[in-house]
Amino acid sequence: MRNVLFVISGPSGVGKGTLVKLLLAEDPALALSVSCTTRAPREGEQDGREYFFLSRDTFLNRIREGDFLEYDEHFGNYYGTPKSFVLRQLKEKSVILEIDVIGALKAREIMAKEGVPVVLIMIVPPDLETLRQRLGGRGTEENAELKNRLERVEYELSKQNCYDYVVVNDDLQTTERRLAEIIRKEKEAAYDQ
Ligand code: ADP
Ligand code: 5GP
């Protein structure tokens, strides 16, 4: 039996975090990989749940120690996936990794070498105006930060063809059902191998 690594990407504000929470609540055989970041926690975020919040010095040390499956800098902060943490989780369950497109492609390359089946899923908005409204409605970013995130959208969307699945997040429940079905099908395919 082989557990699967599901990598979920998509522009900031498209609904990744919301969908992943719903999927995890419904499927006890799924785990979430927790990334490390140097950005400050948002209200309600807890260390070890949304992210491991690290100082810049600690993050740089862990880069030097080769502890990240991939890492990148976004909006002036570092974000990275702890490789040992993901491999440990994969021994027990299939794992969801929520990361940006560059990280996703690196993660696929490295994990495929470890013999882990990797499925890339991109979540896209129904249209750009809806994305703007969702990101603005979340109310977690200042205007300049919001602008930064919107400028990156085109790049993220241009990488859709590298992904195994592209799922439009229109109605939340419908999207969650589509994702749950993809996960069920891909787990079944991996267990058969
Ligand atoms: P991401 O993790 O991709 O940055 P979030 O999950 O934080 O995005 O979602 C951004 C905002 O959009 C949140 O306020 C969330 O409640 C809302 N949202 C997510 N999916 C939908 C949807 N299908 N319809 C309407 N609002 C949504
Ligand atoms: P946020 O600050 O909104 O939580 O995340 C900002 C960006 O960082 C998002 O595009 C998110 O997907 C990305 N991100 C989160 N964790 C990781 C990670 O471990 N690695 C990489 N490369 N990007 C990440």
Give a structural overview.
This protein is 46% helix and 22% strand. It is of the alpha/beta class. It has a single domain (5-192), classed as Rossmann fold, CATH 3.40.50. The strands form 2 sheets. The chain has a 5-stranded parallel beta sheet with strand order 2-7-1-8-9, sandwiched between helices. Strand 5 (68-74) and strand 6 form a beta hairpin. Helix 1 (16-26) crosses helix 8. The model has no long low-confidence stretch (mean pLDDT 92).
Secondary structure layout:
Layout: E1 5-9, H1 16-26, E2 30-32, E3 35-37, E4 51-53, H2 56-64, E5 68-74, E6 77-82, H3 83-90, E7 94-98, H4 101-113, E8 118-124, H5 128-138, H6 143-151, H7 153-158, E9 165-168, H8 172-192
Parallel strand pairs: 1-7, 1-8, 2-7, 3-4, 8-9
Antiparallel strand pairs: 3-6, 5-6
Residues 12, 35, 39, 70, 72, 74, 79-81, 98-100, 103 line the site of guanosine-5'-monophosphate.
User: How many helices does DSSP assign?
Assistant: 8
Alpha carbon gyration radius: 16 Å
First-residue to last-residue Cα separation: 8 Å
In terms of DSSP E residues, the strand content is: 15-25%
What percentage of residues falls in helices of 4 or more residues? 40-55%
Can you count the beta strands?
A: 9
Strands ordered across the widest β-sheet: 2-7-1-8-9
SSE string: EHEEEHEEHEHEHHHEH
| CATH C-level class | Alpha Beta
Poorly predicted regions = none
Mean pLDDT: 92
Structural class: alpha/beta
